[in-house]
Amino acid sequence: MTQAAFAVERYSQAISRALRWLHENEGRSASMPDLCSHYKAPYLYAAAGDPARSRRYADRIRARYLQADGDFRTAPDAKGWFHLPCSPANRYIYSNGWLVAGLEKMGAYGMAGRGLEFIRRFQSPELGGFRSRFDPATGVVDESMLDSSSTSSAGLALLACGQVAEARRAGDFLLRLLDAQPQPERFYFSSWKSGQGLMTDVFGEEDQNAIRGRKQFCLSTEADASGELVWLIGKPMKFLARLHEATGEASYLSGAVALFDFFHRLSESRWRNYASCKIMWGGAELYRHTGERRFGETAARILDWFVESQRPWGGWVHYLWYKDDDQQPFSAALDLAQELCAEMMDALFDLPAAPAAPGAAPL
Questions:
Q1: Could you give the CA distance from residue 243 to residue 251 in angstroms, rounded to a whole number?
Q2: What is the arithmetic mean of pLDDT over 332-357?
Q3: CB 160 within 8 A of CB 246
Q4: Average pLDDT, integer, range 45-69
Q5: Is 328 strand, coil or helix?
Q6: Cα 237–238–243 angle (5° rounding)?
Q7: How far apart are CA 272 and CA 138, in angstroms?
Q8: Rounded to two decimals, what is the model's pTM?
Q9: Could you count the other beta carbons within 10 Å of the beta carbon of residue 251?
């Protein structure tokens, strides 16, 4: 057995342990009212090839969370995420993108179509990027700010539904945002103020739970990477890699690689941050597209961390937010296990099937 095959088997075993925990807790999971406990499940079970569970989750999403306007939220006037309000406050449609891509993947095309119509309301006609905020009580999209995570989640949903032209407009906004970075060796600013440009007035508050804290809007190479929200670069990296595959445009690949390179400027603790899962997710895809060893090695190193840090019960503790099993809410444990399983499955698809670059040694 080759080393690469051994690694794949090890990662597959970690996925199986987490899936077993999710299956054992399906009754308790069904009782959780907040959408945050369920929105990644359709994508996960479609990726896992589990049609029965996919159908159960689709029925749950339709019955509980799909609103008349096409949004998915916990209540008519509340998105949810009551344990982590900073997420929907700054990136409202992030979860919508996961849901639409997952529902499309499993074949629930009607629900995916309705969800995509809601997402499309957030796209800026001028810039192509997606707005960050929405007031469910009034039904009004806040047009003052756009961000790369909302744009990337929406872009992945657009690609999943075959809307390549609109996805390209989203990708072009991300390239514009990357070009506007004033100190790209030090910072990555993720948000854009309409009519003003890149949002850089974000310093002062370092608590990642603070809705206006720096970490919600900016990654810094000068901070301890174990406390940085690395998904701010990981999600756009994944989207740009997929957009490159869909269009063949080299500029999107270059943008994804620039984000990958920024990850490697972060401190050494970047390898022990669960928010780096999206670097694994995108890095594995970059390896499939290019055959460059550095992309595959980065994805594998992060996968190794997930295996090493998996808890005996089968899931993980999100140390960005919680110190141990007891402090972490069950809803957060569900969210993390569903996400890691789904992204690890995608990574395993990318790594073994990667074409070798001319003269490159296999992993």
A1: 10
A2: 85
A3: no
A4: 95
A5: coil
A6: 95
A7: 41
A8: 0.94
A9: 14
Q: Is 72 helix (H, G, I), strand (E, B) or coil?
A: strand
**Residue 82, Ramachandran bin (φ over 0: left; ψ between -120 and 50: alpha; else beta):** alpha
Backbone conformation region of residue 183, classed left if phi is above 0, alpha if psi is from -120 to 50, else beta: beta
Q: How far apart are CA 112 and CA 182, in angstroms?
A: 38
* Coil/strand/helix, residue 76: coil
Residue 1 structure tokens:
């057995």
Per the CB < 8 A criterion, the answer to whether 316 and 310 are in contact is yes
Full set of structural domains in the chain with CATH: 3-350 (1.50.10.10)
Element (H, E) at 187: strand 187-189
Amino acid letter, 122: F
Mean pLDDT of 333-342: 97
Query: What is the DSSP secondary-structure string of 241-273?
Result: HHHHHHH--HHHHHHHHHHHHHHTTS-GGGGG-
Instruction: Give me the amino acid identity at 105.
Output: K
Residue type, 266: L
